[in-house]
């Protein structure tokens, strides 16, 4: 099972960071057909072969995901896209 774990510092505050993570989640829904649901300040994402979470903190955002065999073959692509989104929005 492949794992993605990305953490980025952010200085936008929890509320603004959560709004951005919501947009990132919508993008993941459209690109990878995941289901997304908020649990507190954590966006849970899942579909067959993918289970992950994006945690919004006061000064950081962290994405952690477990990828099954098929999704694991796309690990590089998925990880690169999340890195790009985090870099664009959180610097």
Q: Mind sketching the topology for me?
A:
Layout: E1 2-9, H1 14-32, E2 35-39, E3 42-47, E4 50-56, E5 60-67, H2 69-72, H3 75-90
Antiparallel strand pairs: 1-5, 2-3, 3-4, 4-5
Give the rounded overall mean pLDDT. Answer: 93
The global form is globular
**Number of helical elements:** 3
User: CATH fold name, please?
Assistant: TATA-Binding Protein
Main sheet strand line-up? 1-5-4-3-2
Reading off the top of the CATH hierarchy, the class is best stated as Alpha Beta
Number of E-state strands:
5
Reading the helices and strands in chain order gives EHEEEEHH
The figure for the number of domains is 1
State which percent range the strand residues make up. Answer: 35-45%
Question: Care to describe what's here?
Answer:
The chain has helices at 14-32, 69-72, 75-90, and strands at 2-9, 35-39, 42-47, 50-56, 60-67. By secondary structure, the protein is α+β, with helices and mostly antiparallel strands. It has a 5-stranded antiparallel sheet. The radius of gyration is 12 Å and the shape is globular.
Provide a compact summary of the structure.
With 91 residues, this protein is of the alpha+beta class.
